[in-house]
Amino acid sequence: DGEWYLHLFTPEQPDLNWSHPEVRQEHEDVLRFWFERGVAGVRIDSAALLAKDPALADFVEDVDPHPYIDQDELHDIYRSWRAVADEYGGVFVGEVWLPDAERFARYLRPDELHTAFNFNFLACPWEPDRLRRTIDDTLAEHAPVGAPATWVLCNHDVTRTVTRYGRENTGFDFAAKRFGTPTDLALGTRRARAAALLTLALPGSVYLYQGEELGLPEADIPLDRIQDPMHFRSGGIDPGRDGCRVPLPWEAQAPAYGFGTGAAPWLPQPEDWAPYAVDRQNGDPQSMLTLYREALRIRRSEPSFGHGPMQWLPAEEGVLAFARPGGPICVVNLSEAPVDLPVAGEVLLSSGPLESDGKLPSDTAVWLRTA
Known about the structure:
- Helix content is 27%, strand content 11%.
- It is an alpha/beta fold.
- The strands form 3 sheets. A 5-stranded antiparallel β-sheet has the order 6-7-8-10-9, covered by helices on one side. Strands 1-2-3 form a 3-stranded parallel β-sheet, covered by helices on one side.
- The mean pLDDT is 93.
């Protein structure tokens, strides 16, 4: 009819007017619909972008506050949603990415969202000083509101961990997603295994993105099969996010690796993915799937894991070591040479074999039970 509407993303995704009472009521009804069917929780995409400046002001770089991001009115919306979730015992997970730690924490107040994704940790490169600072910052951000911290290595928007950690630039950087970026998959896999034990030992909750437990690398999507709008908006420079969204391989010898009906899926699966298939990794004591299953088993059995305190321990340069009081000690060697373990103890789990002299190899993590 010639009128216009606001869309912060693609034209097929018009933004809703959350100041309209019928919109608010409709969404609360949608939440109840799913909670009544037993859904445990809801992930809120772009959770800081619902409320808008009523004037619909133009966005001007470096103007504060942003007219469409992190508006104060948002918190009233989430308080009303939280009341619905509390009726059913449901949980909210917010996709919140804000540079201001204090404003980020507001979303996690006791009457708003339960948890939020930790993008600073996801974006952190495989560097000991940066990782330790990010861990400390995360715990400090959550402390004022008493919310559990969260940790995530990968999601549907970023290059898969194995590929990212096998590159020279190991952080989440759009520049690292260019076509033809060299990748050492053996190195990336070794680091991804160590990062799994690091992440699962930290205080709080952990999000695992599908395929992480299989050690999947980023898939190379042929140019004529790319679907992600980011690729086309970049003029073909950015390969987009399709490479981390390829359907999982379940059976090594089955059509489409056992995904769905066997017909070719919407994104092509690499021809060399058979070794990553679930049926190949089942029962293999050295597989990534076995590592994750054993780590999760130990994590569930250890009362000290999950939400609670942690304490950094003295360690050699390039090594992160911390204790969960009353529980295991986690040691991660990010240096370029094997190191002595900072404490003696029983090895509960390691991301790779220790040296014959008991030293911890480079890019390897271990959980220790001490006296």
